[in-house]
């Protein structure tokens, strides 16, 4: 594929192009890179075959999440400028190559190649792929931006539901020695390259004058949070609104990812001292339910935000999330259904937070460089990806060393999460409309029109006087 085919100018949609083809294009990328949530499938065979510790086998995943945030932050402006086809192509090349390099690393028993491939190269593919469709979807769906981004980002949450059984089946078929793991990773690399290429081929950007049938851009919004101005990525990070949302996202993600990362041992520990302890099989089923809640929450809550507003839906994520953690801390091991219901809701808020944030950014900063702004905001995810598991694991380990068991291992973690969610709630309350001084100047023709209008109004006022 030559560079010319990747240029933004080559993918402007012709008249009559259906905007409903764009969410499947975005999903083809997000369902693929969502495999990151299924990395744990590779951990046991890698630990056994290459004689790795649990900490070592987590390194490729941890580096991938760090690179996701960094590549999204530093590549966001380039993605905006070069367009979604270029971004999806780069994502597909990096993510697929990451698996192929990892396969070579397993084959040659060089663990550093696995870290380099899956963690560094694949992580760049994660970050560029994650933000690649965001601004395009918002431009195609200005009437329903929350729903549009929710559909795509739902794919990232649901990618593990496909990847986990697929990877397990291949490891069963090819074996869990170095040859079998390497073959499985190589098939992943080739398979995802083909699947992601569908999005590269299908994606289009709307013509500059395109708008949905019957929809008119509002000159003013009943919701004061929705701007009619445009803010650049450079100016956005100079506003208090950006940093308030950074805190909001970091707190919401920390509260969710801490549970998600330790879900199976957590439910087993929680009910270990009851008459009916949780089996390993049941714990695995619980993890699958949490992944489903994470995925469904992304589309349900982001679509709800189109109706009730972004600020209100984040009040739900953060306020109700704090109350759910309080419920878990107070109820202890008295009710397994309550524990499951509360954690499912928490994970739906976790997923919903990811899916709603692009639309929140669009409301505050406009569509001009919303993808680049989103990329910079995802550094909050990198921080939360380290902070959440660290809080839950470190506190549980210290409580176990102190001789505690059952819910007592996690109560302090839950109290910490409540505090973080309260901080996030306050940050959300502090979000106000962006000051017009940060807006980009209007195009020359609109500026001339405004000046002419002001001059006419001045003459009319003078005549009346």
Automatic annotation (TrEMBL):
GO terms for molecular function: transmembrane transporter activity. SUPFAM superfamilies: MFS general substrate transporter. Residues 1-431 form the Major facilitator superfamily (MFS) profile domain. Residues 436-465 are annotated as: Disordered. It is a multi-pass membrane protein. Pfam families: MFS_1. It is found in: Cell membrane. The chain crosses the membrane at residues 20-39, 59-79, 86-105, 111-134, 146-167, 179-203, 242-260, 280-301, 313-332, 338-361, 373-396, 408-427. The keyword Transmembrane applies. InterPro entries: MFS, MFS_dom, MFS_trans_sf, Proton-linked_MCT. Residues 437-465 have a biased composition (Basic and acidic residues). Coiled coil: none annotated. This is MFS transporter. It comes from Streptomyces radicis.
């Amino acid at each position: 594929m030559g560079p010319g085919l990747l240029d933004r100018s080559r993918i402007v949609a012709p008249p009559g192009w259906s905007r409903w083809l764009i969410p499947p294009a975005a999903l083809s990328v997000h369902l693929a890179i969502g495999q990151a949530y299924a990395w744990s499938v590779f951990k046991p065979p890698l630990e056994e075959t290459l004689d790795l510790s649990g900490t070592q086998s987590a390194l490729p995943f941890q580096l991938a999440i760090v690179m996701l945030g960094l590549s999204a932050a530093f590549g966001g402006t380039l993605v905006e400028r070069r367009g979604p086809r270029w971004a999806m192509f780069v994502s597909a090349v990096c993510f697929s190559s990451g698996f192929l390099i990892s396969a070579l690393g397993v084959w040659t028993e060089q663990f550093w190649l696995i870290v380099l491939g899956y963690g560094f190269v694949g992580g760049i593919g994660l970050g560029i792929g994650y933000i690649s469709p965001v601004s395009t979807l918002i431009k195609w769906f200005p009437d329903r931006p929350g729903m549009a981004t929710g559909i795509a980002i739902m794919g990232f949450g649901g990618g593990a539901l496909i990847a986990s059984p697929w990877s397990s089946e291949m490891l069963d078929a090819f074996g869990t020695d170095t040859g079998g793991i390497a073959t499985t990773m190589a098939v992943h690399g080739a398979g995802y390259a083909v699947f992601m290429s569908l999005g590269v081929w299908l994606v289009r950007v709307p013509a500059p004058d395109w708008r949905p049938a019957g929809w008119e851009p509002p000159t003013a919004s009943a919701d004061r949070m929705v701007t009619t101005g445009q803010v650049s990525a450079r100016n956005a990070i100079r506003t208090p609104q950006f940093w308030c949302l950074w805190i909001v996202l970091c707190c919401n993600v920390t509260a969710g990812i801490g549970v998600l990362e330790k879900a199976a041992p957590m439910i087993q520990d929680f009910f270990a001292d009851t008459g009916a302890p949780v089996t390993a099989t049941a714990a695995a089923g619980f993890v699958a339910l949490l992944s489903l809640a994470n995925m469904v929450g992304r589309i349900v809550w982001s679509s709800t935000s189109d109706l009730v507003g972004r600020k209100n839906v984040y009040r739900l994520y953060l306020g109700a999330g704090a109350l759910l953690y309080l419920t878990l801390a107070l109820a202890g091991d008295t009710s397994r259904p309550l524990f499951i219901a509360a954690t499912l809701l928490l994970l739906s808020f976790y997923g919903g937070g990811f899916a709603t944030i692009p639309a929140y950014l669009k409301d505050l900063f406009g569509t001009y460089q919303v993808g680049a702004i989103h990329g910079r905001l995802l550094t909050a995810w990198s921080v939360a990806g380290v902070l959440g598991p660290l809080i839950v694991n470190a506190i549980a380990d210290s409580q176990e060393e102190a001789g505690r068991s059952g819910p007592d291992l996690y109560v302090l973690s839950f109290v910490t999460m409540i505090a973080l969610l309260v901080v996030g709630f306050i940050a959300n309350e502090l979000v106000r409309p962006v000051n017009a001084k940060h807006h980009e100047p209007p195009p020359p023709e609109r500026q001339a029109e405004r000046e002419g209008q002001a001059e006419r109004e001045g003459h009319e006022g003078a005549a009346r006087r």
